[in-house]
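A common beginner's mistake is to predict each chain separately and then try to dock the pieces by hand. The better habit, illustrated here, is to supply every component at once so that their relative placement is modeled jointly.
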Amino acid sequence: MSQAASFQPIGVVRSALDDLDAAPSQGPEAGTTAVIELDPALAEGLQGLTPGRWLWVLCHFDRAKQVKLKVHPRGDRSRPQTGLFSTRSPHRVNPISLTLVRLEALEGNRLTVRGLEMVDGTPVLDLKPWVAGIDQPRGEQE
Amino acid sequence: MSQAASFQPIGVVRSALDDLDAAPSQGPEAGTTAVIELDPALAEGLQGLTPGRWLWVLCHFDRAKQVKLKVHPRGDRSRPQTGLFSTRSPHRVNPISLTLVRLEALEGNRLTVRGLEMVDGTPVLDLKPWVAGIDQPRGEQE
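With all components supplied together, the output reads:
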């Protein structure tokens, strides 16, 4: 395999969640807001983003637990185990989270977003705009 | 900011593209197939994936060029510059790509996927299933 990839966080999540076990599983119920504090040196890169846009937030889920290649979906032990890569379990070989959020406000280097249920202090690796077409299944699903 | 995050690739892209400049920009026109060769030690984690599923592929875009915080969207110099984080430019602070692909076939540790226009040898960092609801804008857009 190729050599390791090393990334420097571009920012950090500020949220009311300080306990991993209090963080809900990813899902549409995730309705509270959090703040992403971007490295001020990168704030120029936010130009063009406006409230109402949908963004992908990639975080380093740095409190991920031991990786298992077979998991119970959503941690529900009543459901049969399946392969890690067919689930969104946060406990991944490479614990990079992917969350779609709505940008509610943008002030300088601070983005207020809805739908990001991350523990306070979680490092942010990237922000990308959601783009119709390329981010939607094409063909049989829409 | 937090400390660096280091990831070990879980696999590699095998494709007919050996030249960065020949790789098309991300988009619905990306219709050719590529193969993801997963580390055989991780193949168990693919259980539950079946052809026809849509997957997110996260790659380390290891041939990314110099990062600029302002870019021309899709490299089109006739379009005004905008902030990096409002675009899907591959030349990012942390060059992690995000591509939605359709799983066409799965044999052992080899996934044949449609829509992944990556140069041969690109390291793969993660695979995640596309999940209705959480991966779609909620409310005014659908």
